[in-house]
Amino acid sequence: MVRPFRFGVCLIAEGRSRADFVRTCRRAEDLGYDLVAAADHVNLCSPLPAVMLAAEVTSRVRVGTYVLNASFHEPALLRRDIATLDRFTDGRLEVGLGSGYVPWEFEAVGRPWAPRERVDRLAAALEALTAGPDLAVYRPRQSPRPPLLVGGNGDRVLALAARYAETVGLVGTTFRPELGRMDLLDRDELAGRVKYVHAMAGDRAADLRLDVLAKATVITGDRASAVAGLRRYGRALSDDQLLELPSLWVGSLDAIEEQMYRHREELGISSVTVMEHDLESFGRVIARMR
Fold first, then answer.
1. H-helix or E-strand containing 150?
2. To the nearest 10°, the Cα dihedral for 215, 174, 98, 257?
3. Which secondary-structure segment (H or E) carries 6?
4. pLDDT tens, 184-196?
5. Are 107 and 75 in contact (CB under 8 A)?
């Protein structure tokens, strides 16, 4: 099954006015994005009100989160919040969930920074959204619930994505001890993550959409020169390795289009989510792909 391409943008609502956020949501819809999503970090605006506002000021684009930190939301109350949002957005909601990855945020809200517990809380949230109490107040508009995206890279998180989600969010990064920081996976490592997801999904594998979180979009006729500005994303990788990743879109519109088709054919990636700073540049890619 060849899935059609799908494009989303993650908005960073930090200290911005309502008017600016509204303009950005409407611009994303005008540019042809399929999904406008809000991030969930403690230094940003609350994502659920942001999603509601995005729905209020747009008409076609779907709205959602990329991604909620499951440790910061009580499962039963999250089920209620999601059902309410789905009703109030007329069934345009999509829910992205993850286990969280920023240690200082956990300290700020009084939650322990413990890898196993973080994934356990993600599992509890997914279970609540999938098989929680069947009460009228909890019933969303979409049946049986809004579509789920689970984003991550580790085995346990990707196994949960394979079990529960409609979309697997491939963040495409890993902690590299030699660097003491997160760094991009190379293409073979990313392909290994895709293979693992399919193995965990079993019969569900053919129904999963694979989404990649893009770090940068650079439209240029000189790929070799442009890669220098992307070095910070993948310090452990060579220039050639950086340029073959689906999480970095670099080159002419022709070259990026060719890359996108190749990544879909070879890796099964048919969905791309970009960060807000690439709203306009990736919008040119969308116009080309449509």
1. strand 148-152
2. 30
3. strand 6-11
4. 999 999 999 999 9
5. no
